[in-house]
Amino acid sequence: MINISKPVIGKLEVDYVSKAVESGWVSSQGEYIQLFEKSFADFCDTKYCVLVANGTVALHLALEVLNIKEGDEVILPDLTFVATANVVCMAGATPVLADVRESDWCLDPVDVIKKITPKTKAIIPVHLYGHPAPMDELRSIADQYGIALIEDAAEAHGATYNGKKVGGMSDMGTFSFFGNKIITTGEGGALVTNSFELADRARFLRDHGMSREKRYWYPELGYNYRLTNLQAALGYAQMSRIETLIAQRNQLLIWYKKYITVDKITWNPSLTKIEPVNWMTCLVMNDFTSEERDQLIENLMKEGIDSRPFFYTVSSLPMYQQEPCPVSAKLSASGLNLPTHPGLTEETIRFISETTNKLITQIRQARS
Ligand SMILES: Cc1ncc(COP(=O)(O)O)c(C=O)c1O
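# pyridoxal-5'-phosphate complex -> structure
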């Protein structure tokens, strides 16, 4: 079986985690927390990094820091992982879905403007599958309407937009370190920002909202959203080769493009002045129905190749039921992700690609 994703855990990771275990600092204090926070903030070109338990709570924390609550609206793309919408509900606010663009599969500034109301308090662009959202346009909309901007960069560590790293182009950026992400801590996440006040408030709320002056005194509701020193040890080791891990993922896309030779397909977006990271190799089957796309996934599985359909649109999920967004719906129905992790060799990508070519051709031939 060729997995869709697989973490790369080396000797350094094992050494650092062992050291953390031996130090006795197994919970949320210990040297690896500071080391990882400093190195991840440097990597994102931001002043501050606040490590948290996962990418979902990183987003929720960002909303809490901004005091987003019941009666407020937050705009996010219809095509994203469900957590981006769920956190808005967790904060008691209302998610408002906007469409993505054909060109980059990210939040469409034109549709965002249409969805703004006096209740809109934040916009959450998602750097989907590693491709940065149009941050300049979204920044100027946010500034014009006095709305906060939070980047969901869970899938895009290291991607750049006009030379700027994702995560640092908004009020706060959030990341995931889940096992299938570019670097992993098992479960884990981070909030990055250039604002001392926002980082300080995030640290306060991450730790149950405990007063800094008076231990065990809680002036307001907070959360336990902390990452452990053990997880930070793993993440800090991963940071030592994050650039290599990204380069290896990007190389996979080059090989896939070389060996998948069928027509009527669209690859991961690529726009000028933008350097995405190939978190997941994407293939959109332009002439396929969603049933045919699902058939392809099933047939790949029979050949020992694990693949995934694109995310279902948020508007199609039972708890969100909203007007469907046409571009999101089309991509969601026809896209799939192929195996993408640094352990894959050119030979394996060639095998996956040739099998994919064969299965796509078979499905097309079966129509006539
Ligand atoms: C776009 C997006 N946002 C948020 C998350 C949530 O991250 P986590 O799984 O670490 O909670 C993910 C994770 O898969 C994601 O892909």
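# post-check
The two ends are 32 Å apart (CA to CA).
The first helix runs from residue 11 to 23.
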